[in-house]
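Incident log, entry 3
Record: Inositol-1-monophosphatase (272 residues)
Problem: checksum mismatch between cached and fresh output.
Input:
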Amino acid sequence: DHSAPPSSELLEIAIEVARDAAATAYRMRVEGVSVAATKSTATDVVTAADRAVERQITKALRRLRPADAVLGEEYGMAERGTQPPARVRWIVDPIDGTVNYLYGLAHCAVSIAAEVDGEVVAGVVRNIHTGEEWTATVGGGAWRAGQRLRCSTESDLAQALVVTGFGYDPRRRAHQARVVAELIAHVRDIRRLGAAAVDLCLVAEGRADAYYEKGLAAWDQAAGALVAAEAGLRIGGLKGLAPGPDMVVAAPPALFDPLHDHLARLDAAGGP
Ligand code: IPD
Ligand code: CA
Ligand code: CA
Ligand code: CA
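Fresh output:
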């Protein structure tokens, strides 16, 4: 059977799996976590919890949806049994905001998205510490605690609270710092909160006006970007490109072009 299940069904699975995963992450944090290894740079760390939580999520998805593909940050594409190629792919960030998690800062989350034929159709982001849980299905709106989410209606960039993040590569950070240094004169203020998935969800409910970041991977943004889009934000990359590793901008429609234009100008001004 090659039919894909409705997005609501995929969302229910994502929520169930994310709740158990967040509980594991919380328990491991209480028991005490430390750096297990470094990845791309000395500050790009992974803890035992990142790995254990991803294994738990993959195992649960395998049990509930054996024919689907799973892409996670720590283990990449999980092995699948017999083909045909999967129509459903799960995109998993077991702990988004690992550095916050390590330091005990309550801004980190489990992020699980479901893609059907390459399009993200359902996603959940669950804060490990607060239990805040943002969900969305394509066309079905974005939700938290039974409330439908609407993004900010701010239309003046000078009044906008903008959230951003930085990657782990020091050379890229120098460029990202130059962009922030320029942009800060044109906006209300800038926040660097430390978990891209949660950042996108906060913007979805108007707890900040807009978000941008360069260097995101699929798992950082798959669920959060759907939540943001379903809350009315316009999501894009630079110069008409799709959002991706090069840039993700999420802004209320009236703010998108002004913010984008600053970012495009500053990005063109150089840097890796
Ligand atoms: C990171 C966080 C951070 C963002 C980085 C991501 P991780 O993900 O989302 O806020 O600025 O670009 O890599 O490593 O904590 O899952
Ligand atoms: Ca992440
Ligand atoms: Ca992560
Ligand atoms: Ca990471």
